Amino acid sequence: MAGPTGNSAELDLARRGINLYATPSADRARPFHRWMQDGFRVYAALAHMYARYTGGDVRGKAAEYFPHASAVALNGRIGEFAEKIPTRRQLLAEQGVDERVLIGADQVDAALGALTGLIALEGRHSWVGEGTDAMLLPVQELRARYRRAPAAPAVRSVAYAARPPFPADEKRAPCLCGCGGTPAGRQSRFMPGHDHRINPATGRRWNRSP
């Protein structure tokens, strides 16, 4: 059950230093939170085949994961915002995933979600949250607190796949930060770097956010 500052999984991760976009109660939901509501509809559509994950064995369940939480758990630290996607590509490569074929942040995050699920199917996972708030993590034990730390030197170069051009007349939703720009990816919700303009607790722009 979500409260003013998030559900039980989000609160647990926040105490460990991992901050997420908080799930609001119904009366506090804003247009920004429509992507969360889309997720709830997906769970509802799958309910007759896959029950919501509530912890323990993940097989046959529809489980929630969050890219930032999975990346921090695998990396053991909180990186700088500018390092986000290169770090996630590196983590995928270290787990045997060919990240070179992934185009853009959305595909990287989707691959990280698939990796989280595969690790859970092998029983090498943990979770936070109670009941249907449960969120999947790709490590067996979480640290009590995660700290921000400089990036370690890269152990190998990362090759990025070419980004194909999108048709000029393709209609895409504007950036959710309210800047008026149009994200490059078909499924992207923000312009690059603009997601940090939103206060996770309120779904609104931070004061004086550029």
Structural account:
Strand 5 (198-199) and strand 6 form a beta hairpin. The protein is built from five helices and six strands, in the order ααββαααββββ. The model is unreliable at 157-170 (pLDDT under 50). The protein is mainly alpha-helical. The strands form three sheets. A two-stranded parallel sheet has the order 1-2. It has two domains: 8-164, no CATH class; 167-210, no CATH class.
Helix and strand arrangement:
Blueprint: H1 8-15, H2 34-46, E1 51-52, E2 61-62, H3 67-75, H4 84-94, H5 104-121, E3 126-128, E4 135-137, E5 198-199, E6 204-205
Parallel strand pairs: 1-2
Antiparallel strand pairs: 3-4, 5-6
Taking all Cα atoms into account, the compactness measure Rg is: 17 Å
Shape: globular
Task: Count helical runs.
Answer: 5
Number of strands: 6
Following the backbone from N to C, one meets helices and strands in this order, namely HHEEHHHEEEE
Which ranges are low-confidence, i.e. pLDDT below 50, for 5 or more consecutive residues?
A: 157-170
- Counting copies of identical and different chains, the oligomeric state is single chain
Helicity, as a percent range: 25-40%
How would you briefly describe this protein structure?
The protein has 210 residues and is mainly alpha-helical.
Essential attributes:
mainly alpha; 6 strands; two-stranded antiparallel ribbon; two-stranded parallel sheet; single chain; 210 residues
